[in-house]
């Protein structure tokens, strides 16, 4: 398997209990879809304080800037073009994802960034849900008065979306 960025042969290694492929040339990593889910679910890694600090100040960023789409990478396994996606929808971490196998190509440090962000989502989710609760109850009350429970189940959908967000890299 070759690096889609610099064509060096990729080296197989273990990371948090799964096999990933890493490039010694550019520091990029290729990770299968299942392996990525496993990695973001485990919280073994310890991160550099400086990187954590940098990510703490980030603002949500939606979409993919044009310049990020200019590089066209090929999946090292399937050899089809990979799409650039904004991980989690608004993280500003842009990863290349294979449309065929769902594997992702991560540039140097991107995996660490994703893990830090996911840990933050997990830590903040209960507070976010509590904060949204009052607003959702209000919306539901108003809606029920106007149109008989059209929003029934919206809290469940919201929680579900929040919890599932980091299990899908797109
Ligand atoms: Zn490389
Ligand atoms: Zn692929």
**How much helical structure, as a percent, in the residues?**
40-55%
Largest sheet: 6 strands, antiparallel
Query: What letter string, H or E per element, gives the SSE order?
Result: EEEHHHEEEHH
Q: Which ions, cofactors or small ligands are bound in this entry? A: zinc ion
Q: Give the end-to-end Cα distance, rounded to a whole number of Å.
A: 24 Å
Structural class: alpha+beta
Q: Give the total of beta strands.
A: 6
Low-confidence stretches are: 148-160
Arithmetic mean of pLDDT: 79
Physical arrangement of strands within the biggest beta sheet:
1-2-3-6-5-4
- Using the CA coordinates, give the radius of gyration: 19 Å
**What gross morphology would you assign?**
globular
How many H/I helices? 5
Q: How is the quaternary structure best described?
A: single chain
- Roughly what fraction of the amino acids lie in strands? 15-25%
Description of the molecule:
By secondary structure, the protein is an alpha+beta fold. It has a domain at 11-122. Helices cover 41% and strands 15% of the residues. The protein is built from 5 helices and 6 strands, in the order βββαααβββαα. It has a 6-stranded antiparallel beta sheet with strand order 1-2-3-6-5-4. A hairpin with a 5-residue loop joins strand 5 and strand 6. Helix 4 runs antiparallel to helix 5. The two termini are 24 Å apart. The relative contact order is 0.14. The structure holds zinc ion (2 copies). One zinc ion (ZN) is lined by residues 3, 5-6, 8, 23, 25-26, 28.
């Amino acid at each position: 398997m070759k690096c889609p960025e610099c064509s060096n042969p990729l080296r197989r290694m273990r990371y948090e209990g799964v096999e990933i492929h890493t490039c010694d040339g550019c520091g990029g990593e290729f990770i299968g879809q299942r392996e990525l889910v496993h990695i973001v679910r485990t919280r073994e890694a310890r991160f550099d304080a400086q990187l954590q600090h940098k990510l703490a100040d980030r603002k949500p960023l939606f979409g993919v800037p044009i310049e990020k789409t200019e590089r066209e990478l090929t999946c090292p396994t399937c050899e089809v073009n990979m799409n650039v996606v904004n991980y989690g929808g608004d993280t500003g971490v842009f990863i290349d994802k294979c449309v065929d196998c769902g594997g992702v190509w991560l540039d140097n440090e991107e995996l660490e960034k994703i893990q830090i962000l996911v840990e933050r989502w997990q830590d903040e989710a209960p507070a976010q849900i509590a904060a949204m609760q009052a607003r959702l109850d209000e919306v539901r009350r108003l809606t029920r008065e106007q149109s008989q429970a059209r929003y029934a189940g919206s809290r469940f959908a919201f929680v579900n979306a929040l919890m599932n967000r980091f299990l899908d890299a797109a």
